[in-house]
Amino acid sequence: MSEVRKGLWYTTDHEWIRLEGTKAYVGITDYAQAQLGEVVYVELPEIDDEFEKDDEISSIESVKAASAIINPLTGTVKEVNEDLEDTPEHINSDPFEYFIYAIELSDESECDDLLDADAYSAYLETL
Amino acid sequence: MTYTSLIYEKSCPGRQGYRFPALDVPAIKLSEVLPQSLIRSSVPNLPEVSEVDVVRHYTNLSQKCFSVDTGSYPLGSCTMKYNPKVNEDAAALKGFSQLHPLQPQQSIQGILRLQYELLERLSALTGMKWGTLQPFAGAHGEYTGMKLFKAYFDKLGDTRRKRILIPTSSHGTNPASAHMSGFEVIEVAANERGLVSLKDLEQYLDDELAGIMLTNPNTLGLFEDDILTIAGSVHRAGGLLYYDGANFNAIMGKTRPGDMGFDVIHLNLHKTFATPHGGGGPGAGPVLVSQRMLPFLPTPDITFSDGVYQLTTDRPDSIGRISGFYGNIGVLIRAYTYILVMGADGLQEASEHAVLFANYVKEGLKKAYLLPYDQICKHEFVISAQEIKETYGVSAMDIAKGLIDEGIHPPTMYFPLIVPEALMIEPTETESKADLDRFIDAMLLLKQKVIDDPDALHAAPVTTPIGRVDEVQAARKPVVRWRPDTVSS
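^ Those are the sequences you sent over. The predicted structure of the assembly is below.
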């Protein structure tokens, strides 16, 4: 059974979001990493690039497949987690502790569409 | 004993394979004909070996390899059928093998005629008007096709059409080719039968639609039986249809992409038309088009009039050259030989057998393995190891590796993505019933091993020169170059 962590927000694309003021940290969920299998490469977005909600912002490659990260909130990339360049396996061992990028939000109202932990757990039940 | 040497480790200082005869022309210093920047300052590190060293080395390596000449190779979507040796005889004919691509056209009439006739045959088989033999492989064909789409809309002055629809079960190269050509990729969902969802398709039928890329039968081995409805809808909305011919082996002589309404298609000669592949090429991915796409085809074209074959470039709206010369000529010769040897009846029979054999194997496996789409398939089908993984902890990867120990090449794994723990099986028409039964028996034996001793399969293969490869480490920290100072002995 996949872990779902309280206090984070989620999408049906299996990303988690940690909101800190007007900045959102984005990673992938425990469910997502289990589906992907062993991660071998994480493509990081460029700092200062702007992305719309639902844009493909980066990709994760595992032994099985390459999958797109769908940007959950419109904004400008402010931080990327460079640790993942050399040690992508952290995505498997500790998915909730390793964000992939942080984005400065340009429309906070988009957060209303995110799922809370209970709603995401309920969504996982349906899969 | 397992052979593990590199050719560099065979090297012995001073050893020679050949001695050149004494120079019978005046010697010229390299520095007199080449600039200093192009001249090496040190001798390159090349192995010093004799002819017998080289022959033994590569013969030993070749014996470590698995190929369709050594056993069954049911690698789904790749159509690893046997490649008849008569194809090699034709390709080795001196009139073909000793040509130079820059020879005058009147001296290469034979190879031009072969290409012209191959295009005629492929056009007839697919129901298309004409095409190009230049693309070097399937994905190159797709890229060419997307360039043709773009040229078509540019000619119409229609710049809004940016969207290419691609089913969730498609080959990964489809979205890549569309994206590389500047289109926006939109995924279309599958319905409960594993086919394109007409309901999902409907919402994209607008003036931003450039077209749809389809494989038919699709990667689940299922025939898109709504294809005429799909083609009608896409055309009415002003879009075009691209056919990925990866699975053409299922329908030769039965139905044609041209009759289904496709505008541009590619064929994989190295799959359907029995030319070698599996070692990374070379392939050939001819592109064929409908009437309205003819003006945009790449040049040079091959024409025939007054008994003369010619390479012509008279096509103002052409997307231009897409290869340096004329494609992989050796592959084209082999494919044309295959077509002539098989004949129209033979090609039709090949497809019939490919479909029959896939269904025979599917029925043989479905009691032991989960079959997510249980219906009559075409030339391939997909089973899932999801239940086995949940119950016994044995994955699709473990089963694939176990099959190697049974002397059979694994099926395609983890594809298509819409089936978890997928194993995609395509027996091809060139296996005998005994070989098909041996594959079924091997798979049933593996299922019994899953139940009896699941841990053993995690270690498979154990009978090969190299056992279970650490694919994660290989992807994360690849070491791709041997250096003399890394030798541990």
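The first strand of chain A starts at residue 9 and ends at 10. Chain A has four helices and nine strands.

Shout if you want it in another format.
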